Amino acid sequence: MQSDRSPSNSPDAIPGRAIPRRAVLAGGGAGALLAAAGLPARAEPRGFRLRVAPATAQLVPAPHPATAVWAFNGSVPGPEIRVRQGERLRIAVENALAEATTVHWHGMRVPNAMDGVPDLTQRPIGPGETFVYEFDALDAGTFWYHPHQRGSEQVDRGLSGALIVEEAEPPAVDRDVTWVLDDWRLLADASISPDFDNMHDAAMMGRIGNSVTVNGVVPESFAVRAGERIRLRLINAANARIFGLEFEGHAPRIVAIDGQPVEPHAPAGGRVVLGPAMRADLVIDMTGAPGARFRVIDSFYQRGAYRLLELAYGDAPLRERVPEAELRLPPNPLAEPDVAAAERHSVAFAGGGMAGMMGGGMMGRGPMGGMMGGMMGRGMQHAGIWTINGVAATGHVMAPMLTLAEGRSHVLAMTNDSAFHHPIHLHGHSFRVLSRNGVPTRRREWQDTVLMNPRERVDIALVADNPGDWMFHCHILEHQAAGMMGVIRVAPGTTRT
């Protein structure tokens, strides 16, 4: 379950070479972003190759059979890409599927043409085609990658992976570990349920699975040693499941959210809550005794708490006691919004159905659990279930809902007028979370995806410093597919609302 930096689990490296002219032109703004961030340019990009193709994965233990999936480089999740802050990445994505795809670099502040949104920022990568993405790692932190072409199905079939950008001087920990959290809706034969166009999912909580994996397997335990300090990078790659992790007998400290450093603090109520697409970096000191076992419990849903895995202590301690110094991460080069002078905009999220059923029971960890929701009609082409400012998207290309003046500060006053949670993601930018229901947040966290509770108002602030048309959507992917998406344009000139 811990990230493995060995070559066998890394994306295939490719040497520096000429890339297609269209990719060169599309990536032309990356150098300017790097210079603006005060990071040195790299003469030669780090090259990687990702092949998107059908594969099989042993998602659930034997005697269940392997599951047919779609995978990057044959693995679920895809290989971890790990680079240092300030490095330039060149990633060749080969599509061996029978349908088009793209790759979005979630949370990375990339040039618009490298953002991986079909038709909005690039032509989709057709079957048999290769597209080269090239961009700079402006921010250190925990990020991830996934498709946006028919994302609600392609992601749920297994197409996601971690993208880790290390600090120039990584903090002192004994292990740096990544857990990619995901869930799957599996049938009795361990195959993925094909009901991707389920009306129930689209109108309510999204596609909640009945089997939860950590790094592509249903885990029993995670080996630790007494006295060990671990940096645990959590990535929620699920379509719709919200995780709320409790570490029994331990006191994790959150040191980053969505890749951006935050003042180290204990999670509210002792539970680390991650909506779909969100990430958190924890520092966990292993204070248990040799031979002890402690549960990690996912308790977000009231009637569906279950044991994710156990922290299993080895017999030999690593050291007498854990380190005493608090671990703090250096800030990333983000432009600080001037809230007092900011342009203000109102955004309302609405729609959905059957609100009285929200919070229904979950299925646990095994593939034999009951199917959430069942089949309540088919056809994900039912635009209008969800809206942003009264408009339901029917694809990725649409008139901008907002045009933000480039270089200016902006506040988005967002209201969730529905009975469901929505993790709201803005591409190409990070933003400060200023307040919830009018109450200022304690740490004004930098995030790129903010989980909005039902009927909640959240104010966020950003500097619109990355030009282009940017996707803005709910990251419950069934909600996005059913209308909860808009386009925010960052361009010179006067703001339009």
Task: Explain how this protein is built.
- By secondary structure, the chain is mostly beta strands.
- Helix content is 5%, strand content 38%.
- It contains 5 helices and 32 strands.
- Strands 21, 22, 24, 26, 27, 28 and 30 form a 7-stranded mixed sheet that branches.
- The radius of gyration is 21 Å and the shape is globular.
- The chain starts with 11 loop residues before the first strand and ends in a 6-residue tail after the last strand.
- Mean pLDDT is 88; it is low at 1-10, 13-30 and 355-381.
Question: Which helices and strands occur, and which strands form pairs?
Answer:
Elements: E1 12-13, H1 21-26, H2 30-36, E2 46-57, E3 67-72, E4 78-84, E5 88-95, E6 104-106, E7 130-136, E8 141-146, H3 151-154, E9 161-166, E10 175-184, H4 199-203, E11 211-214, E12 221-224, E13 229-236, E14 243-247, E15 253-257, E16 260-265, E17 271-274, E18 279-285, E19 293-298, E20 306-313, E21 343-351, E22 386-388, E23 402-405, E24 409-416, E25 422-426, E26 431-436, E27 439-440, E28 446-447, E29 449-452, E30 457-463, E31 468-474, H5 477-481, E32 485-491
Parallel strand pairs: 2-5, 4-9, 10-13, 12-20, 21-24, 23-32
Antiparallel strand pairs: 1-2, 2-3, 5-7, 6-8, 8-9, 10-11, 13-18, 14-17, 14-19, 15-16, 15-18, 19-20, 21-22, 24-30, 25-29, 25-31, 26-27, 26-28, 26-30, 31-32
